[in-house]
Each structure stands twice: as structure tokens, then as C-alpha cells.
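A reminder before we start the practical. When you read a complex entry, don't treat the lines as separate problems. The point of joint prediction is that each chain is placed relative to the others, so the output describes one connected object in space. Small molecules and nucleic acid strands, if listed, are placed in the same frame. In the example below there are four entries. Take a minute to note the order of the lines before looking further.
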Amino acid sequence: MLGYVTDDVVEPAAEDMQLPRVLAALADPNRLAAVRFVAHNGESWCAQVMEQAMLPMTKSTFSHHLRILREAGVLTKRIQGARGYTTLRKQDLDARFPGLIDSIIAAAPVLQPRV
Amino acid sequence: MLGYVTDDVVEPAAEDMQLPRVLAALADPNRLAAVRFVAHNGESWCAQVMEQAMLPMTKSTFSHHLRILREAGVLTKRIQGARGYTTLRKQDLDARFPGLIDSIIAAAPVLQPRV
DNA sequence: CTGGTTGTTCGATAACCATCGAAGTTTGAC
DNA sequence: GTCAAACTTCGATGGTTATCGAACAACCAG
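Here is the predicted structure of the whole assembly.
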């Protein structure tokens, strides 16, 4: 059986995405960095994003952020084995909010390694 | 003399605008409605925005929201007489975040009169 | 100068949010 | 079966935010 039984996050259909919610999800610098990483590197698993994007937080906090991004419709998750792979819902975002995610990804600052 | 002496809001230059701050400013549904109104109707004074955009809040709360939008760089204010006229900083926003504000304005839902 | 219009500032309050550590669940490897 | 790896969930905590009413300041019209 796939998936954590307890993972009951609802990812909205493209037509049900709410702009304020999407903007709020992207307004956090750490979440923005995560989204940008996934946008550039394609499907990634959690630890990969956290480590390579150098997000300064614990796994539980990152899990929380991922949930917010999924509930807004920005990211989607696919479970394979013990890992959860995350992808940007680019097609759906483009359909619902044309040009939005491209302009945000383009405008996001280049990742700075955090020491 | 122009301006409220006590109004010490700092509106950032285009190059100093921060994406997360802009997104956070636009993530609030009421602020988004206000921005959308100004984007469509051009320079407007406060009471005009509040009434015609039918924002369900007091003047003091609206003043607070306007401050956040100005501090993010989304709006600018011009004082004339007793009134404060507000404008979208479209040129600066386009220069700093190409395509962003257009996609947000285009995606924002049509204003629904609140009863 | 006296009101009335226009908007800001100041507390105060309640709701929300990011963060952590600890404990739990699922999976894969041995 | 046992153990580690990979996340998630829970409860707590501290910081931020939206909101209001009251008081204030600048301006305009008599």
C-alpha cells in the first residue's frame, strides 16, 4: 500500500486554487526557496530539497511547509517506498494563473549557501 | 505644507523591493481587492477604494493595509489637500518583477459586492 | 475660528503561524 | 524479526498580524 495512512492533505484541483492562498504559500522565504529548487531540479525527495536548498529548519517544520504548499496547490507529492517525491504543479498553475509561477520563479533570488 | 507629519512610511525603490514581502502584501484578500481596484480605476483616494471596493473594515484597519502595501512597494501615495491619493507602482513592479503584477491582476477574481 | 472631512497613530485583543522536540508510522535492508 | 531511514503528527511556545475604537493631526469651508 502506498502512502502514509495519516497523510490526509487535500491538494486542490486546478480550478479550485485560490490566489490569496497561493500567494501566501509563496510569501515565506523558505517555502519560496523550496519551490524554486523543485522548479529548477524537477521531482525531488524531501531530504534532497532541505539539504540542497539549505533550508535552516528541522524535518518537522519542513513537513509543515510542504503541507501548506500542497494545500495551496503549488506542489504535489508522490510516494515511492519510504520516500516522498515532490513536484511543482506547473501545468495546473499555468492553467489557473497564467504567467504567475513563471514570473515568481524568474524573480526569485539566486540561492545563497547558508553557513 | 504637504503630508501628515506623522506619516513616516518608507516606500522602497524598485531595486530594493523584496519578492516575499510583495507576495505577503498581496496574499491578503482585502489588500488584493484594493490593489485590483486601483489597478483598474487608476489613482484613487482612500475612501473611494474602501467604499467602491466594498472592503469590510474600518478606516484604521484600511490605513494599516495601505501601509503594508506601500512598504512592500506595491502602492504609492500622493497627498493633495486633505486627501491621500493612491496609485499602483506598475512601472517599478514591472521593472523589478517582470510579468508578476499583470498575472496577479489578471487572475484576481471579479469583485463581488458584499452585503 | 469652528466644524466637518480625511486619514493616521496608539493600545489592546484575538487569531494565526513558524518553529521545535518527542513520539509514531511506513518502508527497506540485513 | 530487528533496526535504521524518511517523514508525519502532536503539543507547546513565541512572534506576527488583522481588527477595532478612541484620540489625534491636517486640511477645507463657512
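Discuss with your neighbour: The first helix of chain A runs from residue 19 to 26. What might explain this?
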